[in-house]
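Expect sequence, tokenised fold; for instance:
***
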Amino acid sequence: LLDFFVSNATLGPDAYKVKLWVDTAAMPDITRWQPYYIEGLTSGKHTLRLVLLAPNGSVVPGPYNSPSGEITIK
């Protein structure tokens, strides 16, 4: 389960978006603030990375804009 919080920006199809990568695969843009289930991961370690995108598609600058984490599926 992926859950996150966006501060000072509104998500939407024509607004800010969150880009998610699972390992090196880009997932569809996230345009709603809600929990997302990530299914189909194989056993082992996986890296999740999020990036906040501006309405024009550019990466929003900032020290907290590209969080990532590693999970292990047993």
About this structure: The mean pLDDT is 94.
